[in-house]
Amino acid sequence: MALSGIEIFKHLPKTNCKDCGFPTCLAFAMKLAAKQASLEDCPHASDEAKEFLGAASAPPVKKVVIGAGDSAWALGEETVLFRHDKKFVNPSAYAIEVADNDPELEAKLKGIAAFKVDRVGEDYGANLVAIRDASGDPGTFAAAVGKAVSAAPRVGIVLASQKPEVVEAGLGAAEGKNPLVYGANKENLDALVPLVKGKAVLVVSADNLDELSELAEKASAAGASDLILDPMAANAREAVERLTQIRRLAIKKNYKPFGYPLLMDARHEDPQVEAALATVGTMKYASVILLSELRSWEMLGLLTGRLNIYTDPQKPMQVDQKIYEIGSVNADSPLIVTTNFALTYFIVAGEIENSKVATRLAVQDVEGLSVLTAWAAGKFTAGKIAEFIKESGVGDQISKKEVILPGYVSVLSGALEDKLGDGWKVVVGPREANQIPQFLKARAAA
Ligand code: SF4
């Protein structure tokens, strides 16, 4: 049974040291009870407290890892229904389906392996390839799984078959890869559980929640502890209703049979409906989303949406404070200053690259805020910019001490020139990043 904040508090050190990020042990205990904090955040908890509080602090949705090595992808571990309550922890995995007897199997596998999207400096792609048992033949299925393992080593494997003999053949071909077996139902559960134990994660499917709960309990009792639940939603309305109901019961009622990551089969004959279904799944708790094929336009939207949903809303994405050299800079290259909000950095850096004018970009640490927000918060001030520019030593690398300020904070130009002193000149740059190429080219030509 879940412990109250007061019961948890009794087992904490009561020193109010704040190392957990909360002002008091009681505040931390309350957050633990609400599943909005992890006991690991208190470095001073005794072993006894850890043991006693372990169950109370365990996330209501179990962490399940699919894949192994480079293809490992963690799912679940969620503690809240709404991301603004704390954050969503482990992003959804997108699985691209390929039939085991598809004549274009190898080309499709290569395409899935090679697909990537660059977003704020990181590469993202498909997480899983789902080999569908279309042939009904264990040998054909195992051969297709083997090809997937070698063609896409950084992508996890889904063995999409309900036939135990086909699953067994696929498991042999994916040995050590910790694949996802999709899946078990009331007819084949007893046969599949012994096959997957210690080797694979099992997807349990049922089209009503009572049956899904029973099957999850049965699989867990039989030793298949890593499960994914598939409520078999037939459309977007059912998906939202069923996925929300399951997640609500897991988080609010600590209902153990539903304390697992969820799967949504978004495949649809209409690609746009499929994209909409997958978007619903990404927003509403699906940890594994099955797609019928790789479409770059669909993945682009899904990956960008997922990045937004699974970003910690309390920690803006940021890059390091330093002078970034874009292109082959020399002493005459211009110097632009901006803030370290990741999106700001990548947009500004991208536009500088587009200009083909080698430029130094001075990125100041303002705790990941954009230019205007940082200025309004008093973190991007003339004094702080001047201090950063001077300490960076960039003045010794350029022939003309001149810094270009974002147009939105032109109000700082006079004060910045005063604070920099030593002959520095401040130039007001464009307000919008997309005006940077024109601005830099005009200066280079002058
Ligand atoms: Fe209390 Fe531990 Fe937080 Fe320190 S880190 S305030 S001891 S709960």
| Content-based structural category | alpha/beta
Low-confidence stretches: none
Distance between the termini: 73 Å
In which range does the helix fraction lie? 25-40%
Please indicate the percent range of residues in DSSP E strands (runs of 2 or more): 15-25%
What is the overall pLDDT average?
94
The shape, in one word, is globular
User: What is the helix tally?
Assistant: 16
How many whole angstroms does the radius of gyration measure? Answer: 27 Å
**How do the strands line up in the largest sheet?**
10-9-8-7-6-3-12-11
How many beta-strand runs?
17
Bound molecules: iron/sulfur cluster
How would you describe this structure to a colleague?
- This protein is of the alpha/beta class and about 450 residues long.
- Helix content is about 40%, strand content about 15%.
- The protein contains 16 helices and 17 strands.
- The strands form five sheets. The protein has an eight-stranded parallel β-sheet with strand order 10-9-8-7-6-3-12-11. It has a three-stranded mixed β-sheet with strand order 13-15-14, sandwiched between helices.
- Strand 11, helix 10 (about 270-285) and strand 12 form a beta-alpha-beta unit.
- It is globular, with a radius of gyration of 27 Å.
- The structure holds iron/sulfur cluster (SF4).
